[in-house]
Amino acid sequence: MSGFHLPEGVIYLDGNSLGALPAGVPGRLADVVEREWGEGLIRSWNDARWMELPARIADRIAPLVGVRGEDVHVGESTSVSLFKTMVAAARLRPDRTVLVVEPGTFPTDGYIAAGVADLLGLELRWCDPADPTAALGDDVALLSLTHVDFRSGAMFDLPTITAAAHAAGALMQWDLCHSAGAVPVDLTAADADFAVGCTYKYLNGGPGSPAYTWINPRIQGQVRNPITGWIGHSAPFAMARDFDAAPGMRGWATGTPPVLALSALEAALEAFDGVSVADLRTRSLELTDLFIAQLDERVTGIEIVTPREHARRGSQVSFRHPQAYGIVQALIARGVIGDFRDPDIARFGFAPLYLTTDDVRAAVDHLVAVLENEEHLDPAYAERNAVT
Amino acid sequence: MSGFHLPEGVIYLDGNSLGALPAGVPGRLADVVEREWGEGLIRSWNDARWMELPARIADRIAPLVGVRGEDVHVGESTSVSLFKTMVAAARLRPDRTVLVVEPGTFPTDGYIAAGVADLLGLELRWCDPADPTAALGDDVALLSLTHVDFRSGAMFDLPTITAAAHAAGALMQWDLCHSAGAVPVDLTAADADFAVGCTYKYLNGGPGSPAYTWINPRIQGQVRNPITGWIGHSAPFAMARDFDAAPGMRGWATGTPPVLALSALEAALEAFDGVSVADLRTRSLELTDLFIAQLDERVTGIEIVTPREHARRGSQVSFRHPQAYGIVQALIARGVIGDFRDPDIARFGFAPLYLTTDDVRAAVDHLVAVLENEEHLDPAYAERNAVT
């Protein structure tokens, strides 16, 4: 708990959207700005080892998703990262013409797939969320799924679906934005092909922090980075005319590393020092089990949409309610921060690094009070009039 | 001068590679991290107006390049930005198959063009730097040039070349990385089609800060963003299944805005408050004229490769010398920071916001001393053994 800065009087159940501020970040960022940039200036690319930031961060993320750091690239947004892997996947299966995405996925995954399909003359096929592998066929180049659903918190069976994709000759990509850092992920054991994840949710890297990309070393020698920027060159500072990709994931890089954002992220990941993924999962399930049990016992008129089965649950709990928007706003006014998703979902994330069972009980106390006092019907909270 | 933090004893002639630290950045970034992120948490997307950062920054960059803020997008790296515009340009001219780039361009421009050509089945044609328009023809979709050459500091005639490209039916893109913020640019008067620029050189946004993209409003309704991420959606928070591009440059956005980097950049751009581009140019030419005159008068054995004609000069001066690497290293040891570019170029940038004529004279004093004392031949400086 001491590893995070959390405001007084707030119970923060939105770490699945924007992680809380790790205690080490402000000092690190001030040092990077004032000493490394201000005093070191251009010399800091060498002296402060700015160029190595992506690789150092990769080494910290890798154990959270069951891979080697050298197989991870850090940089660009989640959306750009997905574009790169989706284009590469399509080019690895030139005899296949279909990208399969789940219609309830976080929207950017579907939007990017549609853009890639349009650019390369492919077909985007929506699968049934209840059985995504039914959409597989010998025309499918890539199945791309979000591991944990951002609305419901439902988790796909990563190894089984990966095996099914491979059995159908397709490549398998996992979007880990809503799982890594709170849920065990073992990409190596599942032998998936691609994974992309953001770092500002359970990894606490700060608003809009850079995403990461993993590519199975089994296929790294075959994939081609479509956005061949200078940092992916085998010798960027030779400034040669012609592009020559660096080997491995160094060749997956594109632009100049975003040093300020990467420095904040590196400091943020120190919060995972000495913490095992298994322990995080134990704590996460303890928190979500307790929240579900408290809802069952104390709250009526809601429909919990998050699976009760552990194997199918991420680290959030969501329920439907016709006034979900008003409920979330009334809770925020009380200092209990969750969020709302169209049209009627109230969503609560349980970041196992900084939440306690006392937080869970107190949050439900507030929810019970909101409903009893009908605070969610108060026009100040009930009317949707802005982005949330 | 008071608007920047510069270390004691340093004359910084590398602001064309990484701009110095504007005085307002550390405080702003600390506030964003500790108060907006730490205290505001997810609420700051609304309360701290994080979502509006790109548009606010666009409004600050626009007058430096002669355009309207609403026609500028801020986000992603220069390399990703170039990829997006090059793909879009190729799709605007489907009956043409050639992308033209200058072989001495900053390498990422050529690398990205090669990648786009490979992806879309186009041809990459290298033009003659002395006459880039000679490569135009009825097969050319896009001519993409860097306004100021990163090695020599030579500047292309932006309006004349733009007109020639249009006369040949091609689209015209300008890379402004090495000009905007120090050299007047009027994209509107020239009626160019696309422009991309980084913000960490003369705009002082910090290491790896996000790039900007301008698209002429004349063609915004026709171009399609190839990387259709959720922030470019007309209603991102509706989280609809299907992509529907926002109008204008809002539809050019891709990923979640990188808030920390954007906040630093916004604070950095305040250094341009009350400064006219014309005054910057006057100061820049005063500095480079003086440096050239001092070199002519006091230094032998070098070949100045930067044009002496004002209309053909950016805001840097470069010279060739067989021991250019040793000279640059020996100068750095004396606190005069320039940089070296393969194979024999010593390069000195003159950021008009924070350099004085006294700095120029003192820098040449050091250069004269380095050569007289043969410090550039000292093995400690003369041997190249690392990236620079």
Radius of gyration of chain A: 22 Å
Largest interface: A-B, 90 and 90 residues
What is the level-2 CATH architecture name of the largest domain in chain A? 3-Layer(aba) Sandwich
Q: What is the subunit organization of this protein?
A: homodimer
Mean pLDDT of chain A: 96
Approximate shape of chain A: globular
CATH homologous superfamily heading of the largest domain in chain A:
Type I PLP-dependent aspartate aminotransferase-like (Major domain)
Q: What is the number of domains of chain A? A: 2
Low-confidence stretches of chain A: none
Largest sheet of chain A: 7 strands, mixed
| CATH third-tier fold name of the largest domain in chain A | Aspartate Aminotransferase, domain 2
Strand order of the largest sheet of chain A: 4-10-9-8-7-5-6
Under the CATH scheme, which class of the largest domain in chain A? Answer: Alpha Beta
Percent helix range of chain A: 25-40%
